[in-house]
Amino acid sequence: MRFALYPNFTRDPSFKWTGQLIDAITARGGTSYLPADLLPGYKHANLQRGIPDGVDFVISLGGDGTFLSSLGLTGLEQVPRVGVNLGSVGFLQEIMPPEINERVDDLFSGNYRLQQRVMFQADCFDPVHNCYAKAEALNDVILTRGVSSSILKIRLFINGARVETVPGDGLIVATPTGSTAYSLSCGGPIIHPDLDMMVITPICPHSLHNRSYITDSTSVVR
């Protein structure tokens, strides 16, 4: 089996866990690869530089931010991912460092379950309705007031139906994966990752009520 590794070396400055993971993969007949431009000074006898086609898994080592950053690896968008939790928040990183050898055994033996995650596409339009930017998101899409000191008055529409005008600092549209991130800190609910839905949470609403909205993941939010 072939594994693309995506470590956060600020979380593993001595390379202890990264090295242990490489050794565990090698001992079972696998091969470890590291992006060619990621910490070029790091060397390991059983590590290869550059990620080829046909990688079986991407393994990130760090916190949830590291896991999300690994999604930017070109050509690996459809490759299953798993993470070693070296961060302070680990909703996405399921492997604890002392479990590395045991979990690598599970990957080689097929003792795992693949979990599909909802993702969004966000389109940005100018005042005359020309789309000038597109992006995909695993966590959330956020509309904020930026550096302005004035509150926003956001007219929220779901599938073409106007819901309400939300006065405040902004709005978060989160996937179930993202429901444990910024949306949670703004009072939003936690949604199980197997559920096919999204949550819309106001940011510091200037209102006597502060409620999130939940709708299915195929909804068009505007």
What does this protein structure show overall?
There is one protein chain. With 222 residues, this protein is an alpha/beta fold. It is elongated and about 60 Å long. It has 4 helices and 13 strands. It has 2 domains: 2-109, 3-Layer(aba) Sandwich (Rossmann fold); 120-216, Probable inorganic polyphosphate/atp-NAD kinase, domain 2 (Tumour Suppressor Smad4, Sandwich), CATH 2.60.200. 14% of the residues lie in helices and 33% in strands. The termini are far apart. The chain has a 5-stranded parallel β-sheet with strand order 3-2-1-4-5. Strands 8-11-12-13 form a 4-stranded antiparallel β-sheet, with no helix packed on it. The chain has a two-stranded antiparallel ribbon with strand order 6-7.
What is the average of the pLDDT values? Answer: 91
List low-pLDDT spans.
Answer: none
Q: What is the percentage of strand-forming residues?
A: 25-35%
What is the CATH superfamily classification of the largest domain?
A: Probable inorganic polyphosphate/atp-NAD kinase, domain 1
How are strands sequenced across the largest beta sheet? 3-2-1-4-5
> Helix amount, in percent?
10-25%
What is the helix tally?
A: 4
The CATH class designation of the largest domain is Alpha Beta
Q: Shape, please?
A: elongated
What is the count of β-strands? 13
CATH topology of the largest domain: Rossmann fold
